[in-house]
Amino acid sequence: xxxxxxxxxxxxxxxxxxxxxxxxxxxxxxxxxxxxxxxxxxxxxxxxxxxxxxxxxxxxxxxxxxxxxxxxxxxxxxxxxxxxxxxxxxxxxxxxxxxxxxxxxxxxxxxxxxxxxxxxxxxxxxxxxxxxxxxxxxxxxxxxxxxxxxxxxxxxxxxxxxxxxxxxxxxxxxxxxxxxxxxxxxxxxxxxxxxxxxxxxxxxxxxxxxxxxxxxxxxxxxxxxxxxxxxxxxxxxxxxxxxxxxxxxxxxxxxxxxxxxxxxxxxxxxxxxxxxxxxxxxxxxxxxxxxxxx
Amino acid sequence: xxxxxxxxxxxxxxxxxxxxxxxxxxxxxxxxxxxxxxxxxxxxxxxxxxxxxxxxxxxxxxxxxxxxxxxxxxxxxxxxxxxxxxxxxxxxxxxxxxxxxxxxxxxxxxxxxxxxxxxxxxxxxxxxxxxxxxxxxxxxxxxxxxxxxxxxxxxxxxxxxxxxxxxxxxxxxxxxxxxxxxxxxxxxxxxxxxxxxxxxxxxxxxxxxxxxxxxxxxxxxxxxxxxxxxxxxxxxxxxxxxxxxxxxxxxxxxxxxxxxxxxxxxxxxxxxxxxxxxxxxxxx
Lengths: 294, 284
Known about the structure:
Number of domains of chain B: 1
Number of helices of chain A: 13
Number of strands of chain B: 2
CATH architecture of the largest domain in chain A: Orthogonal Bundle
Shape of chain B: globular
Radius of gyration of chain B: 23 Å
Order of helices and strands of chain B: HHEEHHHHHHHHH
Largest interface: A-B, 83 and 86 residues
Order of helices and strands of chain A: HHHEEHHHHHHHHHH
CATH superfamily of chain B: MetI-like
CATH class of chain B: Mainly Alpha
Oligomer: heterodimer
Strand order of the largest sheet of chain B: 1-2
CATH class of the largest domain in chain A: Mainly Alpha
Strand content of chain B: under 5%
């Protein structure tokens, strides 16, 4: 009886172990599939032409698969979004964590949390019907759908991540730092900007990196709003096409096993590597923050 | 001294201005979706099939499709995610394997959604030959929400105090009996909160189902898990990018957008209420 129970316990434990291993399995499977399906592209063109190619014309004869316009499209929209979202998000975090009364704090947190729930296709939709036309009128542009429009909407999507994680980091700064600063005669603001924010710096970096990861992998918003031209951008008022948008837009038209199909997997590998790097560096900063704030 | 006070005032005004910009943007967003969406939403819009090539009629197939896809995803991801969380929180010791599992979960959570779509296309649609179907889409969405479910469940499990486990073990219960009869019942609402949040997330995702499950327009409702479906988020995208009657399509898209936003935010709200109730009613 006892022995049977032991066996049952062991089996159950191993079922749970296997379940937890599926995360490794899925991540590995995604990596393998992306590279396996992306690799055949390099039988047709060499790596250098892919990485430094300045034009993406998949349907021309012969087709051209240059990564640069798409990569720059992704980087421009993402950096644009961060330039807007970081000051807004970090300010919101400082206000919520250091200045707001408990009641206002709850309301603000709930409001910002609501943004997290809004699906990306909704941002894209509002970009097409509201923000795009409005910007076009305001700035007298030939087209309303461009880097700026996409960045504004992506910023709104990144704000909850940046604000809530920064707020957590600011909140966990030890009280003693604050009290020491007050005891030296510093005002509240001086304490915030010279003591608390520097102490939470690596936590805030984590927040920004994760926000960036979210934005660079964002598909629907940029697909609908960034304008869609696969050319190297020269100004934020030009339309662009990101890596994500290209995959979403062109995958439907490809033939499985054709060179275009492989090319889309190859650019997905690039995107995957970028977001993996962002996540790993976010992890690194988080661990550093935990060590120093202890 | 006065200069310092002035600086402080200035800084505070700046922070308040920043947070006002955020709140104002949120209000504008919701104003447009609600005020325009409410004009087209009525009982027929929610329960009828689309007519005249999507320029009239209702969005019932899209609502039903989103329901099938999210239910499929949660049926796949919830048992798997909760089991994984049980291992990590109840059995695991700190070793290299567990560290790798945690890093994988974090990185899986950061994989762009369109990459999940490609993975689903290569594995479920092509390799396993499920085709563009509810099954392929559900499995793809299931993998996407797995990290969220694991994290939420782990948090719920770790909130159960150790004294509960010790009391049960002291009574002679085995580890599994303890988990089954003591730990799981006490973390139930936390796990439920995570599941509801994940359903909301899955319902709003477009990119992962783009090549694995959806179709813009179908005359019939799906017959089996191997049928392709319409879905709310894709419906909005398709209305804005395809078709030839922008005027009437935009109106319908506003309606669909409001339905989707209400659905997702409603689920989030339920989750928040559950979480707060859970925190207040804790017996320990």
